[in-house]
């Protein structure tokens, strides 16, 4: 038995207080009082009909699938076939229940050896195969019969005249399908029921390969300092599970770290191995504050331009039009005036932003400021402390004031930083920040002095 393709969980899953009679199948750890004549080969199979499904997707980690189906259970022992689950499910995470319904699960099986061309050939090695080959000149079709020798990198067969590869243009035919292959991933349970009739059961499990991320659009009018903002959820299903009329919930981070924060407002369809984008919310003319951020790397080469970003800061304290706690994801920013077509400026990754915190979107482009840094002096005072000095040049190239946030950084800790008559505030052990406003066309030059600590 190929254990990679079949996972068996012999643990007892108790669905009710019903005590089944004994049978030598799975050796359930339950109290045995009577004997029955059923054997594993006698157990009838029943299938579950789909009722409802809810899938909770996360931005990190597996998804949670919850389903309700109805089965026409039989009294005594039977096998419930539960087809159409995700092939990436974690067998140990499966939970099944029906309340006090009088059923006991004694064994669970998970099979996902699917009917696929390459898998059919692999399991048919040693079996007879017929190859149909067409002569490209005459169009005549030739039939070749042989035995499959290998199918890893290409199909090779043994015929009466020797060994030969099967060509890509050939057609092949097998006498039979390997018995173990199934059309879709399936769970099955051996159950004992004290009654018969229709019974609704609930099943949940974790599965990899299904996730979501935020994809948001900002159409900024820099003249009015307002923006139209759209919040989208990009859903990805990398499994064969077909989500039909499914309620979809979205969680930020992993399922254990965050409850669902969004719900798609209608039952949705998402085919296997596909993706879809949903609009979660839209807010028009949201006010923002524009600031540019220049990062000065104190360890930079002697002379280098400074990276300047454009930062859009949106208040998120309930007074703005932003509707909810904002998910993490990718934000694409467009310049969009009242009489112009949207012009793409850049994109940025943002973290989740709860209510009460400022939502900042920083794109790697400068709209007004140019900056240059030149290192002029470096000297080790001892084995641990270096004294440095550099010249910073900043120019506002526009005809309007520019707010600027300077951020001085270094791979190792910064002990002190001063200069340019600015109030430097420690941001972290290896960074300081300061803010200033440049008037239209203003050019500012100054010297920064720092002490850096070697780790």
Overview of this structure, please?
With 455 residues, the protein is an all-beta fold. Among the domains are: 6-55 and 63-114 and 182-206, no CATH class; 117-174, SH3 type barrels; 369-453, Immunoglobulin-like (Sandwich). The protein contains 1 helix and 33 strands. The protein has one helix at 117-123; strands at 6-9, 13-14, 45-58, 63-73, 76-83, 95-97, 103-111, 128-134, 141-150, 156-159, 162-165, 171-174, 186-193, 197-207, 210-221, 226-237, 243-251, 260-263, 268-270, 274-287, 289-297, 303-305, 307-314, 329-335, 343-350, 359-363, 369-380, 385-396, 402-409, 414-419, 425-428, 431-438, 443-453. Strand 15 (210-221) and strand 16 form a beta hairpin. Residues 1-44 have low confidence and may be disordered.
Key attributes of the depicted protein:
Immunoglobulin-like, SH3 type barrels, mainly beta, 6-stranded mixed β-sheet
Annotate the secondary structure layout.
Blueprint lengths: L5 E4 L3 E2 L30 E14 L4 E11 L2 E8 L11 E3 L5 E9 L5 H7 L4 E7 L6 E10 L5 E4 L2 E4 L5 E4 L11 E8 L3 E11 L2 E12 L4 E12 L5 E9 L8 E4 L4 E3 L3 E14 L1 E9 L5 E3 L1 E8 L14 E7 L7 E8 L8 E5 L5 E12 L4 E12 L5 E8 L4 E6 L5 E4 L2 E8 L4 E11 L2
Parallel strand pairs: 3-5, 3-17, 15-24, 21-29
Antiparallel strand pairs: 1-7, 2-7, 3-4, 4-14, 5-13, 6-14, 7-13, 8-9, 8-12, 9-10, 10-11, 15-16, 16-20, 17-18, 17-19, 21-23, 22-27, 23-26, 24-25, 27-28, 28-33, 29-32, 30-33, 31-32
